[in-house]
Design goal:
globular, 15 helices, 16 strands, ten-stranded mixed beta sheet, 428 residues, alpha+beta
């Protein structure tokens, strides 16, 4: 069965805004609409010409149910353009792209707006089941005496809220927070605290350099906050980050023996990212100028306790299908959930035992050239709005390839729950 090519026409994202332990200025749909509006305004077609809108979101607000449809309507797509939401944890934005690819290849759509969004700073605070039952009983009380009796039964020890984001970042099957899975990988491959801090500091250094060189200007749409301030760049970047500074931070996930800290982990962040995908027919009909083409996608599963190795399991089959080695590609984007996780991916490909037992290979894939990996930094410095990151790395990968006049690149991401996703792109 032959499939028609799928083109990436354009893309845009918001600045990624670091959470500062208080609800951020924008909801998840606000972010999606801000990026989408600017993206659509520069196209030669109307928003109503889209065949569908697909939006990934890991933690949508309860008042933005089916946030993909909410964003489509707010973007002016009209009542007839379907909008829907996908969720694959950290790869939700990448899943949106893959869903669009599938529909275009099947001929069901020709022009699709796909991407991801999340406002993690607005993740809810939750009450325990015991507190919820108390609220229900108090609401059911009719007389003043009944209400007083219920007040006397108020479970004060259960009044403290549960942080919803902490629950969301904890795997319910293996009962490990994502950072604890990164600790597992650091131990498995002997990755030291110093190596993690050096990687993290370099991420900040690379993002700072890319910002100064204007390398994000083509993809970022500035935001205007409710107070009138303008946010133009990812605001969690620390130009003064050094391995020595990061070494002062205490381990967060394993306080006694661990090496994963807030400094060598991705930041809790708000942000959105979109790409416009089109069939060859749509490209010709609207006279579009694509910036790239999606050549292949792959999803993989693995032990949830080692979820950070997902990029290895997803990217390897694509390389095999296309007869490519790690360094046959011109550029790589691997989402930086944790420094230990990215370093573990590099180590796994170069580990004969892992490649044989987990990937079914006769020999190791080799050592990935880190000069081709995340050359403008990544989520440790920029942040990781879970639903948006999978789309962001695909968009930025294309900009890197075009800037360097190169052709092939791979974007890969680890996924909470023990999965990996990867997309092979060709720049045009």
């Amino acid at each position: 069965m032959s499939f028609q090519p799928v083109y990436i026409v354009d893309g845009a994202r918001t600045p990624f805004i670091k959470s500062r332990n208080t609800p951020g200025p924008f909801s998840a749909s606000d972010l999606a609409v801000a990026a989408g509006r600017s993206l659509l305004m520069r196209q030669p077609f109307a928003a109503a010409d889209l065949d569908e809108v697909i939006l990934g979101c890991a933690i949508p607000s309860v008042d933005e149910t089916n946030i993909g449809r909410v964003a489509a309507l707010r973007l002016g797509c009209g009542h007839k353009v379907p909008g829907w939401t996908v969720m694959r944890n950290c790869a939700s934005g990448m899943q949106a792209l893959d869903s669009a690819v599938a529909n275009i290849q099947l001929g069901r759509s020709h022009l699709v707006l796909a991407g991801g969004t999340d406002a993690l700073s607005r993740a809810p605070l939750l009450f325990s089941d015991e507190m919820t039952r108390w609220f229900a009983a108090f609401a059911a009380a009719r007389s003043t005496a009944e209400k007083l009796r219920q007040l006397a039964r108020l479970p004060l020890r259960r009044m403290g809220p549960v942080i919803g984001l902490m629950r969301g970042l904890t795997d319910p099957v293996v009962n490990l927070m994502m950072g604890q899975t990164a600790e597992n990988l650091a131990w498995k491959f002997g990755i030291t605290r110093r190596e993690q801090d050096e990687y993290a500091a370099n991420s900040h250094l690379r993002v700072t350099g890319a910002q100064q060189a204007g390398h994000f200007a083509a993809e970022i749409v500035p935001l205007i906050a409710p107070d009138g301030s303008v946010i133009e760049n990812d605001d969690g970047v620390r130009a003064d980050s050094t391995p020595d500074n990061l070494a002062k931070l205490r381990p967060f996930f394993d306080r006694n023996y661990g090496s994963v800290t807030a400094g060598n982990s991705s930041q809790v962040t708000d942000g959105a990212s979109w790409l416009l995908l089109a069939s060859q027919e749509a490209v010709k009909h609207f006279g579009l100028q694509p910036i790239g083409r999606i050549l292949d996608t792959q999803w993989a599963g693995l032990d949830p306790a080692q979820m950070g190795l997902g990029p290895v399991h997803a990217a390897t089959p694509i390389l095999q299908r296309h007869g490519l080695g790690l360094d046959d590609l011109d550029a790589w984007e691997i989402n930086e959930a944790f420094a230990a996780q990215v370093l573990a991916c590099i180590a796994a490909w170069d580990d004969a035992e892992y490649c044989r037992e987990q990937l079914g290979l006769d020999a190791p894939m080799g050592r990935l050239d880190t000069g081709k990996l995340n050359i403008d930094g990544g989520a440790i410095a920029q942040g990781h709005p879970v639903g948006a990151s999978g789309a962001r790395i695909v968009l930025h990968l294309l900009h890197v390839l075009r800037r360097k006049q190169q052709r092939l690149g791979m974007a890969a991401i680890c996924i909470g729950g023990g999965q990996g996703g990867a997309v092979l792109v060709e720049a045009l």
